[in-house]
Amino acid sequence: MEESGIADKNTPYWWEEAPVRPLPRQPLAKKLDVAIIGAGYAGLSAGLVLARERRSVAAFDAMNSGEGASTRNGGITSGSIRPDYATITRRFGEEKAIAIEAEGKVAREFLYDFIKTEGLECDFQLVGQFKGVIGYDDYEKTARSAEVLAKRLGIDAYAVPYSEQRNYIGTDFYRGGMVRMDIGGLHPAKFHAELLRVALASGLTVHAGTRVTSVERDGSEFRVVTEAGTVQARQVLVCTDGYTDGAVPFLRRRLVPVRSRIIVTEELAPEVMAQLMPRRMMMIEGRQLGFYYRPTPDGKRILLGGRDSSRVGDPAAPKLFLRRGLINLFPELENVRLSHTWFGNVAMHRDMLPRIFEKDGVVYATGFCGSGVVWAPWIGTRAAHKLLGHGEQARTAFDFRPPAFIPLYRGNPWFMPAIIEGYRMQDRIALYRARR
C-alpha cells in the first residue's frame, strides 16, 4: 500500500475541533517571580496556581502551546504507573509503593473535580476502562489485581471472564480482562485549549514559539535566555517531557523521547460501534507493547494507538502495524479506511515514575511516561505549591530524587528501535504460549 493511501490526513484528529494556533506575541518582562519552561498540561497547571497567588509568571514553549503531547495523546484518564506494585516495593520500599498507589486515585479525582469546577468543556466522560489479557493465566493475575484495587483503595474494579467479554468489547482476541470504573476519556486538545484559556485569564503570560536556550544561575536568581531575549527570574520550573531539548541538559540525559502513534477510522455505522464497543469504554491491553484504544467522543470512530520504533520522518510501516493490530482485534474493519494518523513523543526514563525534583535550585515536574493526561496537571500543580512553600498542598509521593542518568545518552535515542523490537518479541512469545 502506498503511504499516501493509508490515511486521509497525517495530522491529529483532535485538531479538527480544537486546532493548535500561534498565540499573539507578548512583550518580554525583564523580571519574573517564576519562569516556566513548557506550556503543556504541566506548565499551564503550574502557571495557573502561581498566577492566582499573584506571582508574576510566564511560560515559554519552543512550539505552539500544546503542540506536543498535550494535544496528540489518546485522551484516556488512566493515570497508569508503568512498574507494578511489587517492583516499586522492591526499588523504593513498601511505604513508597503504598503512597504511589493511593495517589493515583487522588490524582484522577483531582482532575475530574478540576474539569467540573473550572467549567472546562473537553468532552469528558467517566465511562470506565477495560483491560484485555491474552492468556488464562494472565486473567487469574488480573482478577486478583482487581480484588486488591477494590479492597485497598475502594475503586470500583472487577474481573470480566471470557464468557462475559463481549458485553464490554466486540472481540474474541482476549481471554478475559478487568474493568475499572474510575477511568474515562476526554478530548485532549479541547482540554488543553480550556486549560490555556483559564490560565491566561488568571494572569499567566505564555510565550509560544519562544525557545529557551539556557538557564544560568545568577546569585540568588536565574538568567533565563530565550530566543526573544533574556529574563531574570527568582524561580524556574521545568515542565518539559517528551520534547526536552538542550536548554536543560541535566534532564535531557535522563528522559528518552519515544514515539507514540495513533490511527483513527473513518466514521462507522452506529450498529458497528454498538457491536464493537457496546459500553463506549476506554481500552488497554496487558502486553508489554499493548495497544490503547477507544471510541472518539462522538461515538462514531475508533482511535487506536501504540509505540512506534521509528525515529525520523513519517514512515508507512508503523501506520500499517497499527492498522494490522486494529484488524486483528476487529476483523470486521478490514475494509474500513483511516481518516487520521499521527505521532508524538512521550518521555520514558529508568524507573518510569512521574517526578518532582530539585537540582541546583531549579524545580522539575516531568517524567509522565505516557500517562500525562492525569499526571501532568497533578504534578504541575504540586510543583507550583512547592515553589510557593505550601507544605501540605505540595505534598506528593512523587517528590524525590531525580531519575538516574542513562549512560552514553545525550538526547539521541539511538537504542530505542532495538528495545521496542525486544518488547515486541516478548509479546509474540507470550501470545504463542497463551494460544498453544
From TrEMBL:
The keyword Oxidoreductase applies. GO terms for molecular function: oxidoreductase activity. Keywords: Oxidoreductase, Plasmid. It comes from the Bacteria. GO terms for cellular component: cytoplasm. Pfam families: DAO. InterPro entries: FAD-dep_OxRdtase, FAD/NAD-bd_sf. This is Gamma-glutamylputrescine oxidoreductase PuuB. The gene is puuB.
